Amino acid sequence: IFKFLGAVSVDLGKDRIKPYLPTILTPLYRELNSTYAEQDPTLKNLSQEIIELLKKLVGLEAFSLAFSSVQKQANRKRAMRKKQRALQTVANPDIAARRKLKRHKNKAETRKRKIESLRPTYKAKRPRSHAVKDLAMVE
């Protein structure tokens, strides 16, 4: 898709690409600023190359305006999600409690895996099964 975006932007040319610049930059910006653990470095390099291509194509000033608008929109969305999560904690404490229990359970499992990888002879205690009682609501 990134290659397609680059090809379309070159094909449209300098004047006709400007209205679509924020739309094209949104996935490229998201890929550049992603913090996923299993991120593909080739995608990051490709998005950087296409951003450089767009910068040369439309000029630095137009590119900077579009890129800053994409950044502002991403930051606004991030802040809105954070605010909604905080409001949900207050509005629905049972959902928040379930999320917290799940997070703590995952953290304990991660800790056990880490210990096992560091000391192969050590075997951490694992739950016997993921039965229906694990899925039950906590009172």
Automatic annotation (TrEMBL):
GO CC term (a single one): small-subunit processome
Source domain of life: Eukaryota
Ranges for domain U3 small nucleolar RNA-associated protein 20 C-terminal: 1-116
A Pfam family of this chain: UTP20_C
Ranges annotated as spanning the membrane: none
Protein name: UTP20 protein
Gene: Utp20
